[in-house]
Specification:
- By secondary structure, the protein is α/β, with parallel strands linked by helices.
- It has one domain: 4-Layer Sandwich (Metallo-beta-lactamase, Chain A).
- It has 9 helices and 17 strands.
- The strands form 3 sheets. The chain has an 8-stranded mixed beta sheet with strand order 6-5-4-3-2-1-16-17, with helices on one face.
- Helix 7 runs parallel beside helix 8.
């Protein structure tokens, strides 16, 4: 199995290649971005087991319509969150149209909601994909206050004894519920897609400490961020807490918090990952708004273990950046 954390800038897209030209897609990148679709086509994917959108923000659903239009009857299940934005999205309107025309069946579309235990989304032998949040009540409350992040899904993938946590834009109250439902046990994983792109998910530093001291721990923490100026992502205190918790931090792109002039080493700290002659990153040569750091992150898992592709090269490149005149990476 290969799990790709695509560099879509300040957005989210993870694609799990299952073998047999099958895939699972969790979020689809930023608005009008077709990177996820191009990726699936380049790998010759003919069947999507699950097309999942964690919530209705554009930086997570942006590429969903293009995938839906291109694959249509090749998608087995669609999982969505009914937050306060959902019914007004073009994605829902497209799904509704495909149901009306008979291309999709109503039973193919399911809500990302759980009851008293994690909800199984998909499974095959040693592989299980489960929903840990939101619950039905959390979803209702988030709609009431019109906060889509408060009902953003938390999805857990287990494969050959290794675990991935895709946290989307989940918030502290959700994690407290997850922690309680697990009997106050920490959720440990190999790779964590860091909540909310490394931005704050609560104003309290005590909550941040609690999250990474008590609730979740990861060997590798992937932050899907963009080079363009955004003071919220990632936050210095979030990256610092991840590092002190023992995680190796991998940001898809470098920000001006890590280097004053990212354009000086475009297209990236580590040259963007190229597959079949195409760079699967949002970096554009000569532009200062998309410069790769780790770029697209690939985690490979089999019975022998888990490996992060190009990990040593990336860490060496970040060490070199830390010594540069204008460089001061947050993870160092």
């Amino acid at each position: 199995m290969e799990v790709y954390f695509l560099d879509v800038g300040l957005g989210s897209c993870q694609i799990i290649l299952l073998g047999g030209r099958r895939a699972i897609v969790i979020d689809c990148g930023v608005k009008s971005d077709h990177l996820a679709l191009h990726f699936l086509k380049r790998f010759g994917i003919v069947e999507i087991e699950c097309l999942i959108t964690s919530h209705s923000d554009n930086d997570h659903t942006g590429g969903a319509i293009s995938i839906l239009d291109d694959y249509q009857d090749q998608i087995k299940r669609l999982f969505v969150v009914q937050d306060h934005k959902w019914l007004a999205t073009r994605y829902w309107q497209r799904i509704d149209h495909l149901i009306e025309t008979g291309i999709l069946q109503p039973e193919q579309v399911d809500r990302l909601e759980m009851r008293d235990r994690p909800k199984k989304l998909w499974g095959d032998g040693s592989t299980r994909l489960k929903l840990f949040s939101p619950s039905f009540i959390e979803n209702l409350r988030s709609q009431q206050v019109q906060n889509s992040n408060a009902t953003s899904s938390v999805i857990v993938l287990d494969h050959f004894g290794h675990r991935f946590v895709f946290a989307a834009d989940s918030e502290i109250p959700q994690w407290k519920q997850i922690h309680e439902r697990r009997g106050n046990r920490k959720l440990t994983c190999d790779v964590l897609a860091v909540p909310h792109h490394g931005g704050l998910i609560n104003d309290s530093s005590a909550d941040l400490d609690w999250l990474y001291d008590k609730a979740v721990a990861a060997d590798f923490a992937v932050l899907s961020v963009g080079t363009r100026t955004n003071p919220k992502h990632p936050r210095e205190e979030v990256v610092a807490k991840l590092v002190t918790s023992g995680a190796t931090v991998l940001c898809t792109e470098v920000t001006r918090k890590c280097h004053k002039r990212p354009i000086s080493f475009a297209p990236g700290v580590l040259r963007p990952l190229t597959l079949f002659g195409r760079a699967f990153d949002s970096s554009r040569k000569g532009r200062d708004n998309a410069v790769a750091c780790a770029g697209t992150v690939l985690a490979q898992v089999d019975s022998s273990g888990l490996r992060i592709d190009r990990l040593d090269q990336h860490q060496a490149a970040v060490d070199a950046l830390a010594k540069a005149v204008n460089g001061c990476p947050l993870c160092r």
